[in-house]
Design a protein that fits this description.
Blueprint (H helix, E strand, L loop, with lengths): L2 E4 L2 E4 L5 H14 L14 E5 H4 L7 E2 L1 E3 L4 H5 L7 E2 L3 H11 L17 H17 L5 H17 L5 H8 L5 H14 L11 H16 L2
Helix pairs in contact: 4-5, 5-6, 5-9, 6-7, 6-8, 6-9, 7-8, 8-9
Amino acid sequence: MTWTCCWPLLVTQRSLLRDEREGLVRFLFNYSGRRAISTPGRPIELTSLVLEDVVPWTYPPVCDFLYGEWLRDDFGGGRVPRRHVNPDLAVLVTSLLQHAQVLTGVPPTELLKPVPAQDLRTSMKDGLASLLGDLDGDERNVLLTLARMVVTFDTGQIVSKDEAARQVLPTLNQLGQSAMTLALRGYLGEVQDGWSNHRMALEETVSILANRIQGA
């Protein structure tokens, strides 16, 4: 089997077999997150897709394998990642084609085709409810992800969370700017971004950004 690895996306010519899925999970357990055996133990998110599932492109796309630290306990009991529909692949593939730096092997632009702009927008709208459901306890990530979505709706480009925050900041009111600035500074490690004293600003800003996405 031919493998083309472009972090965080793995593209294969066929669906992974059971033993390959188990082996990938064991490997990721060793290297990913705070419970990793090998240092430095940074969280790893790995997505794998089958080439024929996305070329030619269809929506919603199918993900062949997904691992993230939030799924670690699920897989610790012997379960392995299964094939599933995953609208987020539209964003991931677009980001890959726009920003990938090839170290070796076939460039992703020679394997994959651009995601239609309408499907990219649809994928973000489809994922909005799930994102908003994670607000409590994940305030910074939700706010910055909403900023990224707004920038992508406006420009078609996938940008980093800090760049998205900087682009969205001038469009917000005073409360929104205070919430976005706190999220940005927390993301950059400049402050500890506690949200208990900023709840009103947070919720208003989240509502404004979500409405911009829904109405786009």
